[in-house]
C-alpha cells in the first residue's frame, strides 16, 4: 500500500526506484512463474517457495552487478535501534585470472552474522551466540552507494537459533498479521470482506532534524559523542526569532535537501521534503505512506541518508530529540492507518459518518486500545532523548490521550446516547479579509498539543522521538488495536448471532460500541494538552502519567504487556523481557556517557577558559590600579566572576561524586541517575551557561548556540 507520488517533476520520474529491486524490475527479469510465486509471498503473505530462491538470487545478483555492486549484505535492525550489515563479496577470483560471481539462493535467504556483538537482552547465552538473518521478500532489496562502493542490501529479520526475534522487524510483521486477522473479522461482520485477503497497516513517519555546520559540530565534543549540547547559553532572543527564518533557506541547505531527496528517490523512498522550519536550524522530511514494515525499513534508510548527505555538504544532521536546550525538540510523527489489500482505507470516515458503523467500530477499537494500554504506548516511546521532549511545553505531554475532533467526538456522544443522527459538517474558516476566499475547515482539525490525533483519515502519533525506530511503537500500536478489535468482534458476534438481519446487526454493534465508549471515553481529550488544567483533569480521569523513561520502563515487562503480546503471537515472555532489559541498559549507558562527557568538558575546557578570563580580569585590575586609577567596578566584576567559577567548580565536584556510583542492576542504576546524577547535571549546566555569558568570546572554547543555530 503506497501513497502515490504525484509529480510533474521529471527528475523524480527518471530517478525513482532505480536502485531498488522493485516489483517492476522483478516482473521484467524473473521467469513468469517465479515472479507470480514471489508475488504471492509479497502481496499476500504466503510462505516463500524455497525452490525459487536460487533463481531470484541469480537475477538479483545480475541486476546488482550491472549497477556496480561488488558486495551484498543482509541488512537488519537489531535491538540497538540502529541498522546492521555485514558485507560479503559478490565476486571472487576464479583462479584463472578472472572473477566469478557467487550468490546463491542460500546466500539470499539466510545469513549468520556474528550475533554476539548485538544485544539480545539475555535471550541468548553467550555460549550460544548464534543468530540468523532471514530474507524478508516483502521489503524490496536496494543498493547502498557510498562513493564508489555499491552494496546490495537485502532486508532481513534477525532471529536467534531458537527462533526468538532479536530485531525490531519480526515483531512488527507478527503484529501486522495479528491486526489483519482481527480486522478481517470486523469486515466479515459487515459483509465488506469480499475479495480481501489481508488488512495491512500503513505508516507515514515524518522526520524532524537539525542541521549544523560540520566544522562547528566537531568542535563540540558533546555533539560528537551525544548528538546533543550538554552546555550552551541560549541566544538572546532564542526562538522568538523563528518567524524570521521561515522561507529563507540558505543555499547550502537547499543543495543538501535536493541531493538527499535524490538519494531517497533512487532507493525508492517516496519523500516530499518540507522546507519549513519550526525552530531555527530545524527541518522536516515527510515521506508518503507505505505498508508499515516497508515504511519502517525506509525510515531507517532515510535517517542514514540524511546523515551521509549532510556530511558531503559540510553539514551535520542531528537526529537527536533535543540537541539544544530552550529550542524546540525533534519528533517523528507517525501517521498510521489500516487498509485492505485492495487499497480501501478503513479509517476513512466518509460523508455521513454517523451511518458508517464499520468506521465507528474501527474507531472504537482504537479508543479502547489506547485507553487500556496508554501506559504501554507511553513506554514504547521511552528513551533518554525523548525524556527532554515529552511534557516540555513544546511537545506532546507524557499523558497519552486522543484527539478526535468535534465531528467524531460528537458522534461518539450520540452513540453513547442511542442512535446517532447527524454528522457535523466542517464549516468554513473566515479569514477576515474580503479578498481571500474562506477555506473549508476540515472537521478533523489539527490539535498540535495532542500526542495522538485523528487527522482526517488516519491517526498521527506525535510523541515518538526523532531518533527512534518506528518499528517498535508501531508494533505496540498494532497489537493494542488487534486486541480491541478481537474484543469488539467477539462481543458483536455473540450479540448478533448467525446471519443477523441488518436491524439486529445494527443494534448489536451499537450496543457494543456504546459500552466501549462509556468505559473508555476518558482517553479522549480535544483541548489543549499543554495546559496545566489538563494535567489535573487527566489525573482526575485516572489516566496514567509516566513522566519519564524510568517511570515508564517497568510497563514493558508488566504482566498485562506480556499477556497482550503472547496472546497475539507478537512476542514471547522472554522476548518482551529482553526488550525491557535493552531499553533500560541503553538509557543508563546514554546517561553515563553524557555525565562523563559533561565532567570532562567542564574540567578540561570550561574551567581552564574561565580561569584565563579570570586572570585577564585580574591583570586589568592590577594594571588599572598600578596606573593610579580607581577601579572599584572592575574589582567587583572580578569578585562576581570568581564566585561564578566557584559555583561551577562545586557543581562539577558534586556531579563527579554522583556519577561515581555504579550499580550492577541497571534499573537500580537508572533510579540513581534519575535521583542524583541528572539533577547534578542540571546544576552544572546552569553554572557553566552563566560563565558563558561572562567569559570573553575569544576565550570561550565552544561554538555558541548562536553560531550553531544561525550560521548556515
Ligand atoms: P496532512 O495534510 O494531514 O499533513 P499529508 O498527506 O501531508 O496530510 O500527510 C502527512 C503524512 O501522513 C505523510 O507522511 C503521509 O504519507 C501520511 N499519510 C497520509 N495518509 C496516510 C495513511 N492512510 N496511512 C498512513 N499514513 C498516511
Ligand atoms: Mg505531522
Question: Radius of gyration, rounded?
Answer: 28 Å
What general outline do the C-alpha atoms trace?
A: globular
Amount of beta strand: 5-15%
What's the main sheet like?
Answer: 9 strands, mixed
Provide a brief overview of the structure.
The protein contains 23 helices and 19 strands. With 712 residues, the chain is α+β, with helices and mostly antiparallel strands.
Could you characterize what this model shows?
By secondary structure, this protein is α+β, with helices and mostly antiparallel strands. It has 23 helices and 19 strands. The strands form 4 sheets. Strands 9, 10, 11, 12, 13, 14, 15, 18 and 19 form a 9-stranded mixed β-sheet that branches. Strands 1, 2, 5, 6, 7 and 8 form a 6-stranded mixed β-sheet that branches. Helix 6 (169-190) packs parallel to helix 15 (471-496), helix 12 runs parallel beside helix 16 and helix 21 runs antiparallel to helix 22 (666-692). The longest helix has 54 residues, at 573-626. The two termini are 38 Å apart. Residues 428-441 have low confidence and may be disordered. The structure holds adenosine-5'-diphosphate and magnesium ion.
